[in-house]
TrEMBL record, chain A:
<dbReference type="InterPro" id="IPR045621">
    <property type="entry name" value="BPD_transp_1_N"/>
</dbReference>
<feature type="domain" description="ABC transmembrane type-1">
    <location>
        <begin position="96"/>
        <end position="299"/>
    </location>
</feature>
<feature type="transmembrane region" description="Helical">
    <location>
        <begin position="173"/>
        <end position="194"/>
    </location>
</feature>
<feature type="transmembrane region" description="Helical">
    <location>
        <begin position="276"/>
        <end position="302"/>
    </location>
</feature>
<feature type="transmembrane region" description="Helical">
    <location>
        <begin position="132"/>
        <end position="153"/>
    </location>
</feature>
<dbReference type="Pfam" id="PF00528">
    <property type="entry name" value="BPD_transp_1"/>
</dbReference>
<dbReference type="GO" id="GO:0005886">
    <property type="term" value="C:plasma membrane"/>
</dbReference>
From TrEMBL, chain B:
<protein>
    <submittedName>
        <fullName>Oligopeptide transport system substrate-binding protein</fullName>
    </submittedName>
</protein>
<dbReference type="Pfam" id="PF00496">
    <property type="entry name" value="SBP_bac_5"/>
</dbReference>
<dbReference type="InterPro" id="IPR000914">
    <property type="entry name" value="SBP_5_dom"/>
</dbReference>
<dbReference type="GO" id="GO:0043190">
    <property type="term" value="C:ATP-binding cassette (ABC) transporter complex"/>
</dbReference>
<keyword id="KW-0732">Signal</keyword>
<dbReference type="GO" id="GO:0015833">
    <property type="term" value="P:peptide transport"/>
</dbReference>
<dbReference type="GO" id="GO:1904680">
    <property type="term" value="F:peptide transmembrane transporter activity"/>
</dbReference>
From TrEMBL, chain C:
<dbReference type="Pfam" id="PF12911">
    <property type="entry name" value="OppC_N"/>
</dbReference>
<keyword id="KW-1003">Cell membrane</keyword>
<dbReference type="Pfam" id="PF00528">
    <property type="entry name" value="BPD_transp_1"/>
</dbReference>
<keyword id="KW-1133">Transmembrane helix</keyword>
<feature type="transmembrane region" description="Helical">
    <location>
        <begin position="245"/>
        <end position="272"/>
    </location>
</feature>
<dbReference type="InterPro" id="IPR025966">
    <property type="entry name" value="OppC_N"/>
</dbReference>
<keyword id="KW-0812">Transmembrane</keyword>
Length: 309, 540, 329
């Protein structure tokens, strides 16, 4: 186990370096110069522009810039924003809480409602409930998130006034409810389908038959045996999904006025704040790598058939 | 099992969440609903995260400007007709040929940290801002002042001085500005944000200052929660005449205008400076007499570039294109009244605006348009290409203009969309525009000069169309060298007539503010640069 | 040491909704109702003809295939469905007019947008972009992913280690974010630039699934037999490994197709998808946001067609997966 973890951690290093390198290069190749943009419509002051570039190290060759960035990163320095001269790490930590809250809430929805729907469908596989739930999940996956977002916002928020159409205060869980539902809807559909399949399969397994034969009540058999075994693939999916929700909030955050990571990276991309984009993406990659590792380990814990050498 | 447990979790989470909503809405009201005409009431204004550090000379965009213009008081400001009135200055007087300007400050002004404001503070701040090593993006504003080249040399050279020789302190409240060349309207430039003083504490740590600026304006900076809000509070010892009648301002950051508008409707926000295009069709009905529509000093044009196929096109063709555009219909439908059809190169709120300067060139007349285009020898390649940036909400009107040209002139018209403003500018800098680019200009100071010399003088760096006309240059130069403001304005007005004959650009429309305010506040008005006059807003 | 393949495959293309998770669903097997429609016993047939036999009698397959057929015709010959140009607009036909819902297939059927263009015509002409991008991204991803997966799986060793790390690297880049960064760098974004951008980041799942299948097949008797008979590596890969490893890969790809269509729409919605003058649903939905208060139908109708399209491809993918899943036999 320990050796496995060490090996996985070592494997992460080239993956992390590679991914940040690709993003860094892509940002560098982008047209548009953030320093030139400080002057807007007006012609820039060339001398001042050169002085600013030298100040920020942007006049260096690209590989040197990447190396400086990487060595900075190792020491915990994410760089500085060009226009605002703020530390990128401050930008990230400012945006983080809102996204974490949104993600957690969405995750709860995904897990609870998804599993409940999957159970309801899986226990009556082939029945009417099953078909209806299957269709709902298909529908949820096929309506793009921005369409769901706008429909919910327009009807639940603006027309009927059930909830606040925008998030004014990201510490207010009630206001985060609607965006969280929107963000969760896609994963919710996956979780429901995954649970359904898993439950339906395990329902006719030998151990269930044994459990029933030895006189367990149906509900107890379901609770004790069926759920426990069916949840293994679901939980591993949920683990990876947590990271995905995190990265996927760009559209949701934009629609609902949430100042989170997704919003920050979108603005940074549009204003060519290379360090900010690379910083946030590195951060997301890191989360992804760690979560995959944890999930793989969890998988072994949950399923005794799997052992890591 | 695990699922069941988390189901309980979510149920309780939802209960908590709803409870939180209830609490939240109770708490929110405390700011606005306090007793009538409350001089301690806080005004909540929509804004966004300032993109630059909060230093007057580093502020180039509206969110930062909203903070800077209230934390600092300018020497002078402008009324709706573009006339000057004094704010922090007692007087600003030129000498005979307008090459030396004397600024006298009003007495009794203090910074928010309690120190007195003196002439030295102005001189020091300007010297600092102009110096190339301090990397201020508005440093070029000081270029008229003698000695600028010593602190801000050309690229590759080192500065030879720390201070501009043109600035000299006469006494505590008086200083002189000597210019390299006479500028009869230099006082207009002094109304721009960087011409403010900085307290002594600034120089100790400019970076810390930029996170918590100390000015001498009506509001003292209190708190900046990044991406959430910036809080300004009334400065009790403010010496100016526009002392706030409210207790302070919270500038709330929004990711989108629509979110701000929704909050305004529910009275969670008091002043909105611009209504989202989404809400433009409904905002006047939604808000009733709380809707504000008024012009501000900005113009939108499309500019042909002279280095390509449009280099030696007869101006008649451009006049024809101009007359083929149905400005009335486009501004009222596609733009929902957020613009007013242009009839001049300078908008109505600037000094020197001439109503109807265009003659009939901005009047919609498809037949005359076709004739003019034919007389002028036709549209090159029978095609018009308009370059614009996708991130500014221009797509709809560019399409509408194109549809007009296609329908009325039987030509092709397409847009060349750059993903964002940076890329758009890059193509303009590099002379890579295919036909036309979208030109937008907001007044730096409300004078017709600002809308012409910087855009159409052959040596102007912002002249991306590379328009070059001797007669125009000459009239501009005459205006710049004139000894009095009247002569300058008149020379530019004469130049404008030539512009309509030579067509360096096709003016389309002037900008309007579409704003509104909540039930909590009254006396909301906007200046001609589109910013709300926060000090005058009363909280009910 | 099983690397818990299933969980990694699950790394869904989050914002886009490419439901790779469904791969994991197959791993769990399928419930009874589907097994009932299995092959007629006693008549040995290939996997593919079995699948076809299954599919022919599945309503979800027939419906989705029917819709997709119509969409394909719409994409190929939009002129058959409407006589008006999607570009010609007249500002006097206001978007505020209510759609004439009884005037079927007429320009005014679904109303007009802000430019006075027929929404119906624009929906018809927008089909091509979505379909072409969906199909060509899937094709590209299949080719690229299969090659990488096959090489890694078959040869193993350092090549596997290298290719797997490269796959991990690309997998680590958030899909939407990566696509955005790539696309922002293009001034004009055509169908091909969007396709390349999506394929550039989308091939990893296929590579993983392919690698897994190939590793399993490599050990099988027929591959061993072919090798001992002296067949060349290329021949073994093409004749023996590829056909047998293809089924799960094709299933993943088919289901992902709907996801790529969503991805294009989301990118266009964010303003960095197809650029003018291309007509696409995502772009039209993006522009319809501004009218949502007064004329929600401008946004609604293209959204409905977009959703139906994605739904059809998902249902088709689902049906094909059920039919091809060997665990059902």
């Amino acid at each position: 186990m320990g050796r496995y973890v060490v090996r996985r951690l070592l494997q992460m290093i080239p993956v992390f370096i590679g991914a940040t390198f690709i993003i860094f290069m892509m940002m560098y190749a982008l047209p548009g110069d953030p320093i030139r943009a400080l002057w807007g419509e007006r012609a820039p002051d060339e001398a001042q522009m050169a002085a600013m570039k030298a100040d920020l190290g942007l006049d260096q060759p690209i590989l040197k810039q990447y190396w400086d960035y990487l060595t900075g990163l190792v020491q915990g320095d994410f760089g500085t924003q060009i226009a605002s001269r703020r530390e990128v790490i401050d930008v990230i930590t400012d945006a983080l809480p809102a996204t974490v809250r949104l993600t957690l809430l969405a995750f709860l929805f995904t897990a609870c409602i998804g599993i409940a729907m999957g159970l309801a469908a899986g226990l009556r596989a082939g029945g009417k409930t099953d078909r209806v739930i299957l269709f709902i999940t298909l529908l949820l996956t096929s309506v793009p998130v921005f369409v769901i977002g706008y429909l919910y916002q327009t009807y639940f928020g603006v027309r009927w006034g059930w909830v606040s159409p925008n998030v004014q205060d990201s510490e207010n869980w009630g206001q985060l409810l609607l965006p969280a539902i929107v963000l969760a809807s896609l994963s919710l559909a996956y979780v429901a389908r995954l649970t359904r399949t898993s439950v339906a399969e395990n329902r006719r397994s030998d151990y269930m038959r044994t459990a029933r034969a030895k006189g367990l009540s149906p509900s107890r058999a379901v609770r004790v045996h069926l759920l426990r075994n069916s949840m293994i693939p679901v939980i591993t999916f949920l683990g990876v999904d947590l990271g995905n929700l995190f990265a996927g909030a760009i559209v949701t955050e934009g629609i609902f006025n949430i100042h989170g990571i997704g919003r920050a990276v979108y603005t940074a991309l549009n204003s060519r704040e290379g360090a900010t984009v690379v910083g946030i993406v590195s951060f997301i990659i890191l989360i992804y790598l760690v979560v995959t590792l944890i999930v793989d380990l969890l998988y072994a814990v949950l399923d005794p058939r799997i052992r890591y050498a | 099992m695990r699922g069941a447990r988390s189901a309980k979790w979510v149920a309780s989470a939802i209960v908590v969440a709803f409870a939180a909503t209830a609490c939240g809405s109770d708490g929110d009201d405390s700011g606005g609903d306090a007793s009538g005409g409350d001089s301690a009431g806080i005004v909540r204004v929509d804004g966004g995260e300032p993109q630059n550090p909060l230093i007057p000379s580093d502020t180039t965009e509206q969110y930062g400007a909203l903070v800077m213009d209230n934390v600092f008081s300018k020497l002078l400001d402008f009324d709706d007709e573009g006339e000057i009135y004094m704010v922090a200055a007692e007087s600003v007087e030129p000498n005979e040929d307008a090459s030396v300007w004397t600024v006298k400050l009003k007495e009794g002004w203090t910074f928010h940290d309690g120190t007195d404001v003196t002439a030295q503070h102005y001189v020091n701040a300007w010297n600092w801002a102009a110096h190339i090593d301090n990397n201020q993006s508005t440093s070029f504003w000081f270029a008229d002042i003698a000695g600028y080249a010593d602190v801000h040399p050309e690229e590759g050279e080192e500065p030879t001085a720390e201070e501009m020789s043109g600035l000299s302190v006469v006494d505590d409240l008086t200083f002189e500005i000597e210019l390299t060349n006479p500028v009869s309207y230099f006082d207009y430039k002094l109304g721009y944000t960087p011409f403010t003083p900085l307290p002594d504490s600034f120089y100790d740590d400019p970076e810390a200052f930029s996170q918590a600026p100390i000015g001498q304006g009506p509001y003292a900076f209190e708190e900046w929660n990044h991406n959430e809000s910036i809080k300004l509070r009334t400065y009790e010892d403010y010496a100016g005449e526009n002392k706030p009648v409210n207790g302070g301002v919270d500038i709330i950051a929004y990711t989108g205008l629509d979110a701000a508008y929704q909050d305004l409707l529910s009275d969670n926000l008091d002043v909105i400076r611009q209504v989202d295009p989404k809400d433009l069709p409904v905002y006047e009905t939604d808000l009733g007499d709380r809707a504000v529509t008024q012009p501000y000093n900005g113009i939108q044009t499309i500019v042909p570039v002279k280095y390509g196929d449009w280099g030696d096109v007869d101006p008649k063709v451009l006049q024809g294109l101009s007359m083929a555009i149905d400005r009335e219909t486009i501004t009222s439908t596609v733009l929902n009244g957020s613009r007013t059809p242009a009839d001049s190169f300078a908008p109505p709120g600037v000094l020197g605006y001439q109503e109807g300067a265009s003659g009939d060139i901005t009047t919609y007349d498809p037949e005359r348009a076709r004739e003019l285009v034919e007389e002028g020898g036709g549209v090159p390649n029978n095609e018009v290409v308009v370059q614009f940036n996708a991130d500014g909400g221009h797509q709809e009107w560019v399409d509408a203009v194109c549809n007009n040209l296609i329908a009325n002139l039987d030509i092709e018209c397409r847009s060349d969309v750059k993903p964002d403003f940076d890329t758009d500018l890059e193509a303009r800098d590099a002379n890579e525009v295919e036909g036309f680019y979208r030109g937008g200009w907001l007044a730096d100071y409300p004078l017709n000069v600002n809308f012409m010399s910087e855009l159409y003088h052959s040596r102007a760096s912002t002249n991306y169309g590379r328009f070059d006309n001797e007669e125009v240059d000459q009239l501009f130069d005459e205006g710049n060298q004139a000894a009095s403001l009247e002569e300058t304005v008149a020379a530019y007005q004469e130049a404008e007539q030539v512009l309509w004959e030579t067509m360096p650009a096709i003016p389309l429309w002037f900008q309007n503010i579409n704003a509104g305010y909540s039930n909590n506040v009254e006396n909301v008005s906007f200046d001609t640069s589109g910013q709300p006059l926060l000090t005058e807003i009363t909280v009910k | 040491m099983p690397e818990a393949e299933a969980t990694n495959v699950n790394k869904a293309v989050r914002a886009t909704g490419a439901p790779e998770s469904d791969v994991a669903v197959t791993e769990g097997g399928q419930p009874a109702e589907m097994a009932a429609s299995g092959p007629v016993p006693g008549k040995p047939r290939s996997l593919w003809s079995d699948a076809w036999h299954d599919l022919r009698r599945k309503p979800s397959f027939l419906i989705s295939a029917g819709i997709i057929l119509v969409l394909l015709v719409m994409a190929a010959w939009p002129g058959l469905f409407t006589s008006v140009s999607p570009r010609s607009g007249d500002l006097t036909t206001s978007y505020l007019q209510k759609p004439e819902l009884t005037h079927f297939f007429q320009p005014e059927w679904l109303g007009y947008n802000q430019q006075g263009q027929s929404i119906y015509a624009r929906m018809i002409y927008g089909t091509r972009a979505s379909i072409v991008i969906g199909v060509s991204v899937t094709a590209l991803v299949l080719v690229l992913g299969s090659i990488v997966g096959m090489l890694a799986g078959y040869f193993g060793g350092w090549l596997d280690a290298l290719l797997s790390r490269i796959t991990d690297t690309f997998m680590g880049i958030p899909f939407m974010l990566g696509a955005m960064v790539v696309l922002v760098s293009f001034d004009t974004r055509t169908t091909w630039t969007v396709t390349m951008a999506l394929a550039f980041l989308g091939w990893t799942t296929i590579a993983r699934v392919m690698r897994g299948s190939v590793i399993a097949i490599k050990q099988s008797d027929y591959v061993m037999a072919a090798r001992s008979l002296g067949a060349g590596t290329g021949r073994i890969l093409l004749r023996h490994v590829l056909p047998n490893a293809a089924a799960p890969v094709i299933v993943v790809a088919m289901i992902a197709l709907g996801g790529y269509i969503t991805a294009e729409a989301v990118l266009s919605f964010l303003g960095i998808g197809l650029s003018d003058p291309a007509i696409s649903w995502g772009g039209d939905i993006n522009r319809a946001q501004d009218q949502i208060r007064v004329a929600p139908h401008v946004l609604l109708y293209p959204s409905i067609l977009l959703s139906i399209t994605i739904l059809s491809f998902l249902m088709l993918g689902d049906a094909v997966r059920d039919a091809l899943d060997p665990k059902l036999r």
